[in-house]
Design goal:
Its cofactor is a divalent metal cation; Mg(2+). This protein is an alpha/beta fold. The protein is built from five helices and eleven strands; from the N terminus they run αβββαβαβαββββββα. The chain is 22% helix and 37% strand.
């Protein structure tokens, strides 16, 4: 269902969708992606991101709330490669990535606020599977997300199952 345009989804579902107003940059090799939401909330520490993307992710999109901080990267090419190997559909990072030229060559949807070559800490600080909100949209674990060239829309698991059936 990744080939459905977010604008068409919004025309059909309207207020059943949250539309994220954050202006992300597309870095991955896959411009359109969708899936069940998995979330992480962390600040300049990507250990939980690394662990999560090194686990099975078929049909899933990881949404990382890095509090909009771009002082260090929360994902680089090695972690993105692990995401591809493990079947993840995409990653949205409310923060920075690094190795953007390499990430662009991967079959992975990747959106972030920007880039920074600086590594992040690896202390494991953060939370997984908690609702996160940015850009006027709430990303709740288990809900569904669609992303394309126009933006990101989110709906509840209940609405998504009705639409995806």
């Amino acid at each position: 269902m990744a080939d459905i345009a977010t604008a068409d989804l919004y025309d059909e579902l309207g207020d059943a969708l949250d539309s994220c107003s954050t202006q992300f940059t597309q870095y991955g090799g896959r411009a359109r992606f969708s899936g069940t939401i998995v979330t992480i909330k962390c600040f300049r520490d990507n250990q939980i991101v690394k662990e999560t993307l090194n686990s099975p992710g078929a049909g899933k999109v990881l949404v990382v709330d890095g509090d909009g901080n771009v002082e260090s990267a929360l994902m680089g090419d090695m972690i993105a490669e692990a995401a591809v190997v493990n079947g993840w559909e995409g990653v949205i990072i409310n923060g920075a990535i690094r190795d953007s030229a390499a990430v662009a060559k991967l079959d992975l949807g990747t959106k972030a606020l920007g880039t920074n070559p600086r590594k992040s800490a690896k202390d494991g600080k953060g939370e997984k599977d908690v609702p996160v909100t940015f850009g006027g949209a709430t990303f709740t674990p288990g809900d569904h997300l669609w992303s394309d060239e126009d933006g990101i829309v989110v709906t509840s698991a209940e609405h998504a199952s009705t639409f995806l059936s």
